[in-house]
Amino acid sequence: MLDYKLLQACAEVIRHASFEKAARELGLTQSAISQRVKLLEDRLGQPLIIRAKPIVATASGKRLLQHYQSVRLLEHDLQDDLPDIPSDGGFGQVALAVNADSFATWFVNVPKCLFDEFGLLVHLSVDDESLNHEALLDGRVLGAISLRPTPMQGCRARPLGKMRYVMVVSPEFQKRYFSAGVTADALRSCPAVNFSHHDELQNQYLKTHFGLNPGDFPAHTVPSSQGFVTVAEQGIAYAVVEIHQANDALRTGRLVQPCDHVIERPLYWHHRTMKSKLLDRVNETILSEARRFLPAIDR
Amino acid sequence: MLDYKLLQACAEVIRHASFEKAARELGLTQSAISQRVKLLEDRLGQPLIIRAKPIVATASGKRLLQHYQSVRLLEHDLQDDLPDIPSDGGFGQVALAVNADSFATWFVNVPKCLFDEFGLLVHLSVDDESLNHEALLDGRVLGAISLRPTPMQGCRARPLGKMRYVMVVSPEFQKRYFSAGVTADALRSCPAVNFSHHDELQNQYLKTHFGLNPGDFPAHTVPSSQGFVTVAEQGIAYAVVEIHQANDALRTGRLVQPCDHVIERPLYWHHRTMKSKLLDRVNETILSEARRFLPAIDR
Q1: B8 torsion bin: left (phi>0), alpha (psi -120 to 50), beta (else)
Q2: Based on the structure, what is the number of domains in chain A?
Q3: A–B interface: beta-carbon pairs under 8 A
């Protein structure tokens, strides 16, 4: 059988991409961690970690990390049935990859549900699509939110619902720039707000509805979903945001919708196909939270 | 004299690390952009861009980008004096690097001031310290917020003030976990919340005041300043946050401070030393906003 002490050391180095952080996490010295990884590599007869900056896992290293995460899941189920087995500080752990707009809207109560109901510590990473899929494939996360409808190998993709994006502005901004309505000409001379992962979305919005190409309109850059709403409320840009982010401000009149165009984005929950009570619970929590907020995807 | 059409193409490729985005930004085809970069490289007799994924600038490429940004600054000053020269969509542009906690607190009004007073489109990048310094050195940003007191070559570092970090929890969390006060034992058995760039700060907080090492205490991971306050309000973690982030919630009683310990972090504004009216205005705006919110750094 594998030596799980060694495997744990190796998995934590890969997860943190750092010997130092893995050492801290496990309460060991860096040299102890390093020895364990070396020993495991010797026993398996192949390198598991490429010692570059940043540290990268080899294909074998990634595969081992996956295996390690699966074993942890099974252990968690076991603790459920045999509650006397001690777990880390009394809590289980689950790592999830989320897109920024979900994190800023319907996803907000998921960590609370997982902690309150199942005693889980939640480790979120908020990255772009392709990095989220990579994290799922590598076994660094148990599940990932994504716009892709098709599952990857060994995974399942389940519909979460549609995010709906609308244009919002402050009443003053509307008066100043959109007094004759939202037209291509008006959009050429007032600032939008870009967010790297929003660009594609906003570009499609302005192209589809107004025939504008990127470069045709001026824009600020603010890499934060929350920041988007803030600059719109401050009246220095129009913003294309997920409707839930603007609900409060629309209700109180701090923001208005200067036009009725909507862009929809279907969202999917990707997770490994494996038997685990913990995974089932996480899946149920996320699917039910999504359905509370998001309209269903059209068939 | 340099051909600035070529230089602009090259600078945008470096700034966006993408031929495709540079093409969109300038309203050109990718092949036109690629030809311009190639032509400039031929004329200067050296490579400016390493065509890898992601695209990287060579040392010469970086130096040229710096020069390009300086010329853009000087142009902006010129437009000020000769208002008939057309600029991009009627707006100037300024790129700034910010740390996440500043962005979530005292910095929030800076883009509005720069847009309202000087008609500037503001491009923010929110990254960690070392990446912010790199962006300043490379000329991708005009200035950067940082904890480092010492200026880099060709730059100036000016004190902004102290950020002050305190521990906050929901009243229910306090009752449940800290009924006998905040002690090392209590902290061993209730969740903190980590944010990669916060780790060092929270670790110091828990080490200095409670003798705890990382790994001694359970923690969620939430990579968002806003998310820190949210999970604390939801009562699933205690959080060590910049005091301004929690002010509203402390006032209304959604959060309380379970102990009086404070950690302070002096902040500095780093910018190039060059003569430019635009830069002077940006500096003044940022320094005066910081001083409105942050107490002065002790001498």
Answers
A1: alpha
A2: 2
A3: 112
Of B125, B217, B236, the CB nearest to A112: B236
The residues, ordered by sequence, that sit 6+ positions from A121 with a Cβ below 8 Å of its Cβ are A91, A92, A93, A94, A115, B191, B218, B219, B220
Asked if A90 and B189 come within 8 Å (Cβ–Cβ), the reply is: yes
pLDDT single digits (tens) B223-278: 888 889 999 999 999 999 999 999 999 999 999 999 999 999 999 999 988 778 88
Gap from A113 CA to chain B (nearest CA, Å): 9
- Interface list for A 239-298 with B (CB within 8 A): none
Boundaries of domain holding B222 = 163-265
A16: in domain:
yes
Chain A hits for B20, Cβ within 8 Å: none
Give this complex's ipTM: 0.74
Task: Kindly report, residue by residue over A118-151, the tens digit of the pLDDT.
Answer: 888 898 988 777 778 888 887 788 899 999 999 9
Residue type, B12: E
Which of B117, B61, B53, B126 lies closest to B285, judged by CA? Answer: B117
Q: Is the pLDDT of residue A31 over 90?
A: yes
Q: Does A96 touch chain B (CB under 8 A)?
A: no
* CATH code, domain carrying A181: 3.40.190.10
Per-residue burial over A167-188, b if 16 or more Cβ lie within 10 Å, else e, is bbbbeebbeebbeeebeeebbe
Does the beta-carbon distance from B89 to A25 stay under 8 Å? no
> Using one digit for the tens of pLDDT, what is the confidence trace for B115-167?
998 888 898 988 777 778 888 887 788 899 999 999 988 889 999 999 999 99
**How many Å apart are CA B260 and CA B23, to the nearest integer?**
54
**Residue of chain A minimizing CA distance to B192:** A121
User: Cα dist. B159→A156, B113, B154, B156, B277 in Å?
Assistant: 52, 20, 17, 10, 20
pLDDT recorded at residue A78: 65
**Amino acid letter, B71:** V
**B212 interfacial to chain A (CB closer than 8 Å):** no
Whether A227 contacts chain B with CB within 8 A: yes
Which of A15, A38, A61 terminates a domain? The answer is: A61
